[in-house]
Amino acid sequence: MELIGQGIAQALRLLLSGDAEVWQITWLSLGISATATLLSLVVGIPLGTAVALTRFPGRGFAVSLINTGMGLPPVVVGLFVTIILWRNGLLGMLELLYTPTAMILAQLVIAAPIVTGLTLAAIQQVPEKFRLQLLALGASRAQMVWTLLKEARLPMLAAVMAGFGAVISEVGASLMVGGNIKGSTRVLTTATVLETSKGNFDAAIALSLILLLLMFLVNWALTWIQQGRRA
């Protein structure tokens, strides 16, 4: 308990004193994970909607792949993204390994199946009769899809929260593709691992508390939007 108390005090001191390194790590964590989450929405919402509204051979297998992707181990994602970005890899010529861009790419691979799967479930929850009624009233297919997305917006906000929570808190992929380079790719999770390995438990606890606070603030904002729209 004394160690936890020291960690809380350290977290408050780092935040209130405006420690440049801590704030740089915090903003980098937020920027990378927010970008990956936004990109996952661009990929996941159209894909999840398309799978939910169409019937094609192998659809059940595709849904199974999406559901499996929702639980991808970050270290596995990190391994394959590292192989692709390695100097002899498929995208090695871009020299993205050990950069924030590589971390965004890895986190995108983690978040996209989560957003896709939850979007798929949200659209499927809207009764089919509602879709047919929209078409019968003269709505185009694009208008029908847009109306369905608005009807499913509350669970889809939950998809945003789930995707962001998965990537802001992961450490395996970020460590493998980012390298935990000070001032470049060190984020809150990898910095926590580093401080723990050095035995600086008070600093590790402080960084963990800052991470939890950051996650709470983002999810609080999204929850406020979700519940406000519901009301």
Report on this structure.
The model has no long low-confidence stretch (mean pLDDT 85). The termini are far apart. It contains eleven helices and no strands. Helix 1 crosses helix 11 (201-230), helix 2 (20-53) runs parallel beside helix 5 (100-125) and helix 3 crosses helix 5. It has helices at 2-16, 20-53, 59-69, 74-85, 100-125, 128-136, 141-151, 153-168, 172-178, 188-197, 201-230. Helix content is 78%, strand content 0%. The protein has one domain: MetI-like fold. With 231 residues, it is mainly α.
For the structure shown, list the relevant keywords:
231 residues, MetI-like fold, 78% helix
The fraction of residues assigned to DSSP E strands is under 5%
Q: CATH topology, which one?
A: MetI-like fold
| CATH classification, class level | Mainly Alpha
- The helix content, as a percent range, equals over 70%
Number of helical regions: 11
Per CATH, the architecture is Orthogonal Bundle
Question: What's the number of extended β-strand segments?
Answer: 0
Most strands sheet: none
Name the CATH superfamily classification.
MetI-like
Gyration radius (Cα, Å) is: 20 Å
Summarize model confidence as the mean pLDDT. 85
Number of separate domains:
1
**What spatial form do the alpha-carbon principal axes imply?**
globular
Oligomerization state: single chain
What structural class do the secondary elements suggest? mainly alpha
Cα(first) to Cα(last) distance is 41 Å
* Element-level helix/strand string: HHHHHHHHHHH
